[in-house]
Every structure is written in C-alpha cells, then in structure tokens.
Amino acid sequence: MPFATADLCDQHDDQIKVAEPIFRSYGANLAFAGRIATVKVFEDNVLVRQALAEKGEGRVLVVDGGGSLRCALVGDQLAVLARDNAWSGIVVYGCIRDSAAIDKIALGVRALATHPLKSIKKGAGDRNIPVTFAGVTFVPDQYLYADGDGVIVSAVDLAG
C-alpha cells in the first residue's frame, strides 16, 4: 500500500484531517497506515500493553497520553510486541523510551519526545473511544496515514 500523505491531501482534501506537526518519528518504518484503535491514559501504560497484545491486523494504535512529558508510555518491549502482533504503527501523544532500539524495529512510531522513566502500572484509562489532540479527533475504525510529511486521518480508506 504505497502512499504519500501529500498526495492523499491533494487528491482527497475534503475527506482528510491533518494533525498538527508535533510528532517526532521513531521506528524503522517511516511510513505506515491502518485502521485506528485508541487508548486514553495518563502516565500509565497498562492499557497500551493490553491493546498491543491483541492481533493488530495492520491497525495503528493511537495513544492519548494527555501530552505528558513526565514518563514514557511505550518502550522497546511494547514495540516488539506490536510488531509481533502485526500492528502497523503507534502514535503517542506523550513520550516513548528505548528510542535507539525502537529505531531498529519494523514498526512506525510517532511520539512527542523521549523520556527514560517508565510509567506507572494501575490500569486506569479508556479504550476504543474517540480521542482528540494535535487538532484532530482520532476515531476508532477510521484510517490513519503517516509518513515523513505528517499524519492524516480519514473516515474512509484512501490508499486501499
């Protein structure tokens, strides 16, 4: 499924929303796309692990971490879990850690920054609800496309 977000914007400008350019790119896959699954957490990654332990089927996990820059929600072990369970990518409105290791994993990852501290483990949060950040609402089962130019979302599959 080769695509370029710039081309998708040009061809489908009435069907896409473009996320603000706040994310840094990690992972070995610069470009990734898939149906959206969501988790909403704050400095707690238990639900992130639970989601990534499921079959990804090419989906993208969108993690609304509240924009916290105080700990990481994804590390190399969760990135490997995501790759092994066929997730296409992860977008984190928060931090990751183990970035050098993640950069070698065949997975697309976007996050605000890196932070060496792991999160707490209480299991608080929500799954598969619409989440809003970066000027976009990410709705489960809609589609996300990410490449070197940015992150876009659409209610329909534009690259299928």
What this model shows, in words?
With 160 residues, the chain is α/β, with parallel strands linked by helices. It has a single domain, classed as Glucose Oxidase, domain 1. It is 17% helix and 35% strand. It is built from four helices and twelve strands. Strands 1, 2, 3, 4, 5, 6, 7, 8, 11 and 12 form a ten-stranded mixed beta sheet that branches. The longest helix is centred in the middle third of the chain and has 9 residues, at 76-84. The model has no long low-confidence stretch (mean pLDDT 97).
Beta strands, count: 12
Mean pLDDT: 97
Helix count from the secondary structure assignment = 4
Radius of gyration: 14 Å
Structural class label? alpha/beta
Q: Summarize the main sheet.
A: 10 strands, mixed
CATH superfamily: Ribonuclease E inhibitor RraA/RraA-like
The separation of the N and C termini measures 7 Å
Order of secondary-structure elements: HEEEHEEHEHEEEEEE
Poorly predicted segments? none
Assigned CATH architecture: 3-Layer(bba) Sandwich
Concise overview:
The protein has 160 residues and is of the alpha/beta class. The protein has 4 helices and 12 strands; from the N terminus they run αβββαββαβαββββββ.
Supply the key terms.
12 strands, Glucose Oxidase, domain 1, 17% helix, alpha/beta, 160 residues
Helix-strand blueprint:
Elements: H1 5-11, E1 16-18, E2 24-26, E3 32-40, H2 46-52, E4 60-64, E5 72-74, H3 76-84, E6 89-96, H4 99-102, E7 108-114, E8 126-127, E9 131-133, E10 136-138, E11 143-147, E12 150-154
Parallel strand pairs: 3-4, 4-6, 5-6, 6-7
Antiparallel strand pairs: 1-12, 2-7, 3-8, 3-11, 9-10, 11-12
